[in-house]
Amino acid sequence: MGKPKLVVSTGAGISAESGISTFRDSGGLWENYPVMDVASADGFRRNPELVHKFYNERRKALMNAEPNAAHRALVELEKYYDVYIITQNVDDLHERAGSANVLHLHGELMKIRSVSDPDYVESLDTEHLVTTPATRGKRGDFMRPHIVFFQEPVPNIEPAMELVHEADIFVVIGTSMVVYPAAGLIHAVRPGVPVYYIDPHPADVSGMSDVRVIAKPATKGMEELKEELEKNMKDML
Ligand code: APR
Question: Can you give the pLDDT at residue 209?
Fold first, then answer.
């Protein structure tokens, strides 16, 4: 009998306390950048230079960010649970915190991929954070940010839905639940599986049964939830 499966869906809110801007909070990224110019397929076709510049700036910001206590709490829970992280975030804070299983729905800031062959992906290192439309990969392909732009498919949504369907516990942290298909993950839990939603300004989930809202920042909310989940496991051992 393996450990119970704890599946966690995270959004920009879990990285907020690491100093990384969210998108839709006041002062967020979409207040300062025209989203359809810097993060959509049309925008990339129209002005690839602007899109590369936008992601270069976000990569630079990521270099000053560290995982926070919420990322670390999820790693500590691996003692008692098989923890699977599904994240809409393109930062690598879950990986840097030490999470064993991380599935990115919207791509990864520290990776670039071939414009002509989406399966050809290369990792950037901290010495090479800047890309332009002229950037070529090791085999000569023109490269682009390894990001899922708006108007593009989300290839990892199927495995993500499967993970949520197998969850024994499902936790949502720091997402406004407005972007699909990610926002639909919560509907893939089996009936009776406990769902927790940690967010200081949670979206309205009153229509969904059995969701326990913890209206706190990710670090405080995870502290509270980790205690409860660890206690549950100790009581069962
Ligand atoms: N702790 C937890 N949650 C927080 C915190 C915090 N300290 N600060 C803000 N939040 C919450 C906000 O209340 C909000 O619900 O994080 C959420 C951020 O919402 P968005 O900015 O919409 O980010 P997200 O839901 O991840 O956006 C989804 O939209 O633009 C696309 O691809 C982009 O992946 C992104 C997707």
Answer: 77
